[in-house]
Structures are given as structure tokens and as C-alpha cells.
Amino acid sequence: MDHTQVPTDPAEQPARVVTLTAGDFTLTVNPVDGSEIEPLRPGATAGRPAKRASADRGAREAAARPPVPPLPVGAAASVRLPLGRDEERERLVRLLARGRSVRLTGPAGSGRTTLLDAVAAECGNLAPDGVVRLSAYGHQQPGEVLHALYAAVHDTAGRPDRAELLARVREIGAIVLLDDLDMGGPALDELLRATPECAYLLAATPDTRAPSDDSHLEEVFLGGLARADCAALLEAGVGRALTDAETAWAEDLRFASEGLPLRFVQAAALLRQRDELNRRTDEDEDEEPGVFEERPRDAAFVPLPTLAEGAAPAELLASRVSESARAALRIACALGGELPHHAHLPALVGDTHADTAVGELLDCGLLTPVGTRYRLAAGVARQLDEAGYGDTAAEEARTAARHYAWWTGHTSVTPGRVAAEADAVLAALAGADVVAAVLLARTAAPAFAASLHWEAWERVLRSGAEAARKAGEVAEQAYFHHELGVLALCEGRLDRARAELEASIGLKGALADKRGTVAGRRALALVADREAAGVEVSPPLRLEPPVAASGGSAASAASGASSASSAPVAAKQSPALAAGSAPAPIAAAPASEAVTTVVPVVSPATARGAVPATLAEVFEDAFPLTPKPPRVERTPEPEPRPVPRGRRKTVLLAGAGAVTVAVLGTVVALAMGSSDPSTPPASGPGMSTTPTPPAVPGTSGNDPAPDPGASASASAAESGGPEEPSLTPSATPSSRTTPSRKPSSKPPTKPSSTPPTQDPTPPTPTETPTTTPPPTPTATPTEPPPANTPPGT
């Protein structure tokens, strides 16, 4: 594996170009035009990497520890001892010596990191590859932890592919102390399964996801300290014996804080500050000789802190530190608890002596070591936000982002230094405005790629793509998508690589960037070659994050459908669109939390120098030369059978004619019913007649009704023309009218054998019926009701 720095003249080429080997590819990280990837040439591999010697491992271990910050003049660092942890320490050493893996669970502030330091000092000779200290803070992928373990044991600066990584880490036999564990379940099982010869000591908090039942991990819980241990820790921090009042206060504090060591480290800082304030008061007080000597210690000028101040001491501690230290606390609150390296504080704070603020805050117990850096201790960020330290968070984050954008792009800064400051850079990127975020992501991404810190590389690329989409920077957005495609190709995620590269090619085509388009097509051709070779596309060492809500990961910031959103911007800014051929947009599909843009598949170019056919079709709709009318989407109604286009008019006319005939028949029937001479006229006010059907010669009540068509024809002949159709729903056909109830004088006839049927549609009279006296019953038999009369009439 090779990792070489390309010699360049800083005056002519200020960009930092790095060439490295990643798996089967040679990757050239170019901050100006984007990374270029090509297959590894035969004979370019350096062979199997050798393991580091013991001295080399010790030097690397010391470099991985957080730096010792300078202290103010006259200040002495407090001593932190793992008091009261002898039983836990002996048990952990005994289990690791047997080759067992242990999960050390304790709340934040319980002293897990201090206990790991004590265990590491006693396990140096238990494993052939020694002790490896790693930090899993912010790492949710087991692959990144395995790459860190591989780099800690083997003397190499390259990044192997998945197959070679699994083969190399399987041979490592070391005691791995993994602090700040942030994974569990299948991810943790994958990590343990990949390294069967390693014994792990995993330090986690109770809210971390539990391991699976098949992991076979020993569980050790770390609780609070006993009363004597709390008093001893407090006296060691103060540097003197406690008074009776201070002992009683410490006992109450232990009950309130459940004996967490962090609370007593902060309480010792409160007592030291109180002693310093009393000393200054005594020096400034002009009293009679001998008065101070006779004054008891309990009668001090500054009283003891209250129990509430001892349980949440961040605000009181911050009020008694220097102004530079308070400014550093504001920066840490703006960066989500991440504190920059003490070398950056003079530029961020504006004080040349601000580098001593880290040592001052660490001595107060407001900071805790995490990997190679420091961050705010547990609960401190919340307490400072309530005190108003987070009111200027937006301004502080913007200042930090612009400072890191200048620093990460400077040629004198090595990629390793940028990787050590990765968490602070990502925090500044998340809190900055879109302009500063694009600038910072553009300069930090090549440094993360060259340092092989690829998890930070991916996070900064996604954040930069989202910021570029919001800012309308199409060229920068195309760069970020190209880098994401190259990263996915190096990791074997071919589907993701194809989607990102196609998005980049589309955006660069809209900007008429021929050089960038050619580079994207070359990378896309490598994706096609890998797919044709049948390379596995979903490595098990990289678990895709679940679809959120937070994002999922936060800084992770997914930029879904970013290409489609920025396509109109590209159309306005691209001079090639007004010149001639219309390149087309990227049709983005719904993406998961980690997918920035998913676009249609682009096939290789069909001719030399020609745009692929799929791209031409993709560009046709989003960047048209002439505007197209908007397409109206209509929901088709379900039909039993599709009607041909030429017969729709005929079907509509036939339906209208049928409705007209029915309505005309109803109108004619009602007109004939109202003109029946056999119906007696109404007499008297309020009296009306009941309509009866017309009497047709030669028919009886049980005969079928006349044809509506014939009635309509007769009516038309009498009136001289067709009547206008009426759409009133009260009109009914004449065959549906109810026969008259008047007794008939004809002799009875034989009832019809057809059973009476009920009319489904009752008649609607045209006149308002009124109450009429019932007819007088006679002995004359009446004919049976007609066949179509409803029962009970």
C-alpha cells in the first residue's frame, strides 16, 4: 500500500494533491478538479504490510492520547486517581488475561476512562500485539473501528479493501480497549466476529444499545464511590484536610450525586476557588494584627457552595475562571460540546494567551478527554446553555467555520492534523451558514480523504452537498456528488456509486464542464466493469443507517433529491443552454437517510465523444429549449371496456337520445292523463282531482301499458313538432301510473294468473292531492285489481 505526497511548488500549485492506494484502485485526491480513480497497475502493490514493533506501538499510543495543555502561571494540575476501583480493576485484568471480552457499563462521569488507563498499564504483556487504545465516539460502523485497529497494528498508510481487511485483522492478537462505545446489536457482533483473536474491553453508558445474546460478553457495572473514597478524592483535589463543615457538605453531595467521581472533581475545584478567594480577601483586608490568626477556618469570607451548586457546578465554576476560558466555553457550546485544540483558541478568542484556557477548564472538571481531544464533561453543556452561554452560538459557529476553512486548506497543515480535529470541524460545519459551510466542506474534504479518515470524509461531503444545494452553487454540488461516487466505488457500494456519479455527470453537463464530465464517465466505466465482474455490492462491515427522522445522524445531513432541485439553477447559470443543445436534468428518486440523490441509470456512451443516450433523454424534460405546457394529471374512471377514441362522440349522442325519448314519453303520458274527460272536475275550494291513466279502447286494467315510443310519436304528431325534454325528476313514464280506484260497472272477469308485482318506482302526481270522501260501498262486485297494482292498494 502506497501513500505518497506529490511534490508541488507552493507558489505555483497551492493545492495539496495526494496519491494513495485503496484496495484495487489508485486514488488521486485533487482539491481543485476532484478526485481521479483508476485501476491499480500490475506490480504497484507493496506486498503484505509488516506489524509494528513494540516501541513503535508505544509511540503511536502516546500520540493518540489527548495533548497536555499548558496551565496558567502558578497553577498546578489536579491529580485524578482511580480511587475505590481496585476490585473492578483486578476483575477486568483477570478476565482479559483469560481472553474474555468485557463490557464495562457506567453512567457518564463514573470514571470509565480513568479505569481504562489503569487497566492498560497492567495488560501490556498479556497479548502478542500488546494493548491498543481506540475511541469509538461517533463511530456507528464496525468497518471504521476495524480500519483503525488495522492501522494501529500494521505499518502501512494505505487503506485495504474489505477482503484484505478481514484477512489481516483476523490475525491480530491484542487487547483492545475501546472507549465511548456507540454501537451494539448486529454491528457489535460483526466487530467481534471479525477479530476472534482479540480480547475487548468495551466502555459504554447504560443507554448504549445492548449486545446480542450470542456475543458472550462479560458484564461489569461501574457505580458510585463509597463515602470514604469520596472524601479521599475530595481531599486529594483540594490538597488539604477537610473541615467538619466541608465533610458534612461532601456527605450531602455524595447522596445527591450518587457518588459519581466527576462531581467530586468539580467539588474540589469549587473548594480550591473558595480558598483562593478567601486568600485574596485576607490580603486586601486591612485589620488589626493578630485578628486573622485568631479567626477560625469556618468563619471564612466566602461561604461553602450550596448543595444545588455542588450538584450542578458548571455556572459557578465558569464565573470564577478567566475571560479567555469563558470565551472558550462559548465556542464549545456553539460546537455541540466539542472544544478545538488549544492552538486554535488564540485565533478564535482573540487573545494570545487563550491557549491556557484548556488547562484551566480541565483542572476545573469542565472538560473530559475523548480520544485525541477534549470536550465538555457530562451535563456541563446543558448547565451552560441555561446560564446563557449558548446565546451567541450562531456567531461563534460561523467564526469557527471560517477559521477552519482557512486552516484546513493551508498547505502547511498535514492531513493527519486535520483528521485529529475532525469532530470540531464537523461541528462547525453543522452550525455554520450555507456559504461558510460550502467553503469549509470544499477545503476539508480532500484533507479527510488523504488522511484515510473516510467516515469524516463522507459526512463532510454530504453536508457540503446539502449546503451547496441550498446556496445554489451547482458547480460545488457537482464536485461533492463526484467525490461521494468515488468514495462509494472505493468501498464497493456500486449502486450508490452509480447514483452519485450520474448526478455529478448531469450537473457538470449542465455547466458545460467537459473535464469534469470526462472524469465522471471514467469512474462510471469502472462501476460498470465491477458490476460485470460480479463484485459484491453490499459489504457486511458497513451497516446502512435506518431511515429517520435524525437524520439521523446529525451532521449526517442527507441531501435527498438535491440534483433535481438544483437543475433549474443550472439552467439559469449555464452558458451552454443558451448556445444550443439542451442538456437534461437529473430525475431524482426518493432516497434513504444516507442517499443524497438517486437518478436513472446512464449507459456508456454509444459513440466516441458523444453524450450517452440515457443522459440525452434525462436532459430532455428539465432543460427544454422551448417551454412546454404543463401536464394535467387526471384520474381515469374505471370502465368495463375501453371505448375507442373515434366512437366516444357516438356513444355520448346515443345516451343523450335515450334520455330524451324517456323524458318525452313521460311528458306526453302526463299530458294525456290530465286531459282525460272521464275524470270529474274539481269542485269547491281546495279540492283537486287525482290523475288517472288514459282509457284505451279494447284494453282493460290488467292489459299491458302502451308503448312509450308510440305515445311520444302521437304527441309529436298532434303538437306538430317534438317537445323540449324536461329534466324534472318528478316526471315518470305512463306505464308506471297507478290505475283509478273507481268501481267498474263491467262484469267481473277472471283474475289473471300472473301474480301481482310491486312497482319499484311510485308515481309522482303533478297536482297536489287533497283529502276526498271515500266512495259509498255497494253490493255490486268489483273487478279484481290489475296485475301491476301493488299489494294492499
Description:
This protein has 793 residues and is of the alpha/beta class. Among the domains are: 80-221, 3-Layer(aba) Sandwich (Rossmann fold); 227-285 and 298-311. The chain is 44% helix and 6% strand. The protein contains 29 helices and twelve strands. The chain has a five-stranded parallel β-sheet with strand order 6-7-8-5-9, with helices on both faces. Strands 1-2-3-4 form a four-stranded antiparallel β-sheet. A hairpin with a 2-residue loop joins strand 11 and strand 12 (373-376). Helix 23 packs antiparallel against helix 24 (514-532). It is globular.
Strand and helix map with partners:
Elements: E1 3-5, E2 18-22, E3 25-29, E4 36-39, H1 54-64, H2 86-97, E5 102-105, H3 112-122, E6 131-135, H4 142-153, H5 162-169, E7 175-179, H6 186-194, E8 199-204, E9 218-221, H7 227-238, H8 244-257, H9 261-284, H10 291-294, H11 307-311, H12 314-319, H13 323-334, E10 338-339, H14 345-349, H15 357-363, E11 367-370, E12 373-376, H16 380-386, H17 393-408, H18 415-420, H19 422-431, H20 434-450, H21 454-471, H22 474-490, H23 494-510, H24 514-532, H25 562-573, H26 575-579, H27 613-622, H28 648-674, H29 708-719
Parallel strand pairs: 5-8, 5-9, 6-7, 7-8
Antiparallel strand pairs: 1-2, 2-3, 3-4, 10-12, 11-12
Helix pairs in contact: 2-3, 4-5, 4-6, 7-8, 7-9, 13-15, 13-17, 17-19, 17-20, 19-20, 19-21, 20-21, 21-22, 21-25, 22-23, 22-24, 23-24, 23-25, 28-29
